[in-house]
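Regression test attached.
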Amino acid sequence: MTALGRPRGFDRTVALDGALQAFWEQGFESTSITDLTRRLGIGPPSLYAAFGDKRALFLEVLDLYYARFVEFLDQTLAAPSPRRDAIAAMLLGIARFYSTPGLPKGCMINTMTAPAGEPILQARLAELRSSVQARLQREMRTAADAGELPQDLQPDTLAAVIWTTVLGLSMRSRDGANRAELESTARSIMTIWPPTR
Amino acid sequence: MTALGRPRGFDRTVALDGALQAFWEQGFESTSITDLTRRLGIGPPSLYAAFGDKRALFLEVLDLYYARFVEFLDQTLAAPSPRRDAIAAMLLGIARFYSTPGLPKGCMINTMTAPAGEPILQARLAELRSSVQARLQREMRTAADAGELPQDLQPDTLAAVIWTTVLGLSMRSRDGANRAELESTARSIMTIWPPTR
DNA sequence: TCCATTCTGTATCCGTGACTACAGAAGTAC
DNA sequence: GTACTTCTGTAGTCACGGATACAGAATGGA
């Protein structure tokens, strides 16, 4: 059974990707419906029929971005080796991800600030951020349980430092820092976690 | 010689401080002229006569905030003691400044993102940020010249790490991290700079 | 007291952005 | 082919935000 009525004239997933690009570059407020319709090559009614209103579209875009980001985390953190190596690789990967040629600079979730008057968006952004943060905490605790942390370094403290660095890297990327600079910082920060010998 | 004509019915510096508060909390776009006039208790013509348009007011507010921030930096960095102690004190002070009760959370300059379509504001924000960053670089170089840095730690690399941390602390504060958490991160990060013994 | 000057309150103007009404187009089911 | 359903393009509605016109109020100077 195929769909009834006139078929959609554009690919929904492609359009969603285009919206992702637009929101990632310009943020929620600065991206107008006109921006989107022009970039996607469709009319406003098509956009509204496919995605609902602007807020719903943005939330769907956020979910897409988040899914990709988590997929990336899963990959780099899947390494069986000592946790410290995995975290180091993750940080380096994030530094590179934030400075990928052809993609907007920085992290869509970490540097994005939702407008006041959009508490739903603010809450969702905060939720996603704290979700990543919690993931880091879990990683550090398993590392601690495995005896990979020095006595005087609490896992939550270490997780907070790593998380702070991730946020800072995102902002610096947005400000025009190049890939080499971000990589350098990602490497240096790992010296606060001396390899257990 | 006093001013001619009807005197202004409000204190300009007090109003500027009110605008600072508003912009700091809500950002440029989310703060409407109506918000400002309501908060300051004045009408739109008074506001426009005193400060020019919204963009000019924001720029003046930025300058005020920056001046205060630099004044704070000057104070903490004036300490004659080893540079490392001064930087540690500065980081701790920033962590506290970003979580001062009664003030908006985070840094107005570091977490503020100007809307696309306002290149002047974007440029000014970037300029102020890179100015602080340059200040940190200078501090680290003098520390290096004084032999306070270990051999394998480049001053610019260290400055980048500190700066990344400052940016990250600002974001975390904005996300609701409490003062103790920020202080903890500020202290931990200094372990990448071992005291020269 | 009268004028020149500057500020203030009210009521707008104007542009823009989110969203939609409506008519026509493009499909499927019979 | 006809009916029914769904999508699309054009044009427009509605609300809101930045900015201002204008009349009146408050000062200094002669």
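Expected vs. actual: identical. The two ends of chain A are 63 Å apart (CA to CA).
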